[in-house]
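Issue 218. Parser rejects a valid record. Input:
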Amino acid sequence: MKMAKKNLKRKQKTQIEVVKEDESKVILPLVRRSDEPVTKKAKWINRERVLVFATRGISFQHRHLMKDIIKLLPHSKSANKMERKENLFVVNEMCKTSHCNKCILFDGRLKRDLYMWFSNSPDGPSIKFNVESIFTSTELKLTGNCLKGSRPLLSFDNSFDEHPQYSLLREMFVQIFGVPDHHPKSQPFVDNVLNFSVLDNRIWFRNYQILDENGAIAEIGPRFVLQPIRIFKGSFCGETLWENPFYVTPAKTRRLLKDNKKDKYTNNKIQRKAKKTKELLAPFRVKPENEIFRDGNVKEKAKHLIAKNKKAF
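Output the parser choked on:
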């Protein structure tokens, strides 16, 4: 009796259920290696990494600017300061050891001049800029704010489409400042805008916060101006693809300002000397009334003096 009850409890499988089980089974390939890794669908496809570091000799303001840029780029890596005696070609080896394919190098001179390098390592190109009008985010004390690690929108002026050198710069800025999608250190939000505009043969960098959906923005910082000097074919080497004809070195501009001040001082000295001689000769000058009685017509000279006095009053 017990065996009969057990048989009643068991349910026989129908033909439809057997067919469904066969369809649900995954058929493996005939030839497959045992050590072959399982294919995974990766969302983080863009693996751009930027190495941001500086040479020895930068000032405190330049160091704060470098830290602000590192905060803007969650896909960046920092490194120790590089010695000035070393060749710039060593930067490619540093990028290789850090597994970075882009580089931003801050090259300071005399703790007052700053040069910035943007490079695509190791194939190139590389661009050298002179940085002017630096204002860090702490100096500005602006009301705007954004989430750390958020992905920014990149806004470019129409001038980047008019000249080939600016179109190359735009592509470099997009690859460096564009945060990759689904980056582990990035946030899934877009709350700031990086604006690049061309004015007076210079590139003006501004960072704005998006306040609402209507397009209202507020500046966050930092802000600086990049003056392009040269574009090289390779990474920190190679032939020159483009050179800025309007570039003047900071040392030369300081010398010109100094010369202008020197000319101003000499002109003031000459004017003071002329004024002093004029004051000394004032008592010995002949009065204009006495000139009437000299050679010539007295009536005509008197009329001329009267007309001259009327114009003066």
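Fixed in the parser; the record now loads. The CA atoms of residues 50 and 102 lie 5 Å apart.
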